Amino acid sequence: MFRLPLGDYFDYLVHWLQDHGETVFDGIKDSGMWVIEHLEDILLFLPWWLLVIIFIALGYFLSGKKLAILSGLGLCLIYSLDLWEETIETLSLVFTATFLALIIGIPLGIWIAKNNTAEKIIQPILDFMQTMPAFVYLIPAVMFFGLGKMPGAIATIIFAMPPVVRLTNLGIRQVPEDVIEAAVSFGSTSDQMLIKVQLPLAMPTILTGINQTIMLSLSMVVISAMIGARGLGEVVLNGVTQMQIGKGFEGGIAVVIFAIILDRLTQSIGKSKTRKRKA
Fold it and tell me: Which residues neighbour 73 within 8 Å (Cβ) at sequence distance 6 or greater?
């Protein structure tokens, strides 16, 4: 049977991009590393107990005493395991990757919500991005950006971006037609319709997409550690490769605690938006 050399075509494309886009990739790498490293420096400069208090305050104001207590106990446990620096490294990588994914994903979701042709083209691409094994993203990321945190961030962005694109599109499309007709009858322009009507009503759905993007970013922590992203993923990876079961378990617990706290915080924001809309 004839074999389609698809892998050869992809290999040629990657090498062509390496030869002709080196300046662009170096600029992206330098910019991304500047953000990640400065965020790390700021968070490590702050006393650990101050960050714990900040998360406790966020949990209390967004959800109540239960989340505040959970955040405080969870972060104190991470500190007691001597994994605070690794947690900050992971936090910086996740925040940077999530921020860039949202900067790209939310405008893209708005665009396909307003353009049916674009939606038909981009939806299969999003399916591809979500179903492709995450390990595959590491290959071009390493070839374009080398080893370290930046290729881990790029792979995380590609893997974690589809949910916020899909749910932004869904939220805007689910805005009731009678609300849109009422806004049009009052003379709203397209921009006013988007900013003052569609986005506020779609915000709970968009926040769900943001929540899913953060969770997927955290799920890439261990995978990104394979290419030098460090953080908690490196602790878990070392536990697996060196058969240090206890150390790997501690790293896994830290990832789980961190994921639960961020998940509850973002869910609380979405619920508060939903309550305000119903009120």
Answer: none
Provide the greatest CA pair distance for the chain.
67
Cβ partners under 8 Å of residue 271, min gap 6: 204
pLDDT in tens, 142-188: 888 888 888 888 888 888 899 999 999 999 999 888 888 888 888 88
Which range, of 162-166, 198-202, 234-238, 241-245, averages the lowest pLDDT? 241-245
Domains assigned to the chain: 6-45+81-278 (1.10.3720.10)
Token pair listed for 156: 């995380």
List the one residue out of 47, 35, 62 whose CA is nearest residue 261: 62
Q: Half-sphere exposure of 238 toward its Cβ, with a 13 Å CA cutoff? A: 13
Helices 48-62 and 245-278 pack at an angle, to 10 degrees, of 40
Q: Residue 159: how many CA atoms within 13 Å on its side-chain side? A: 26
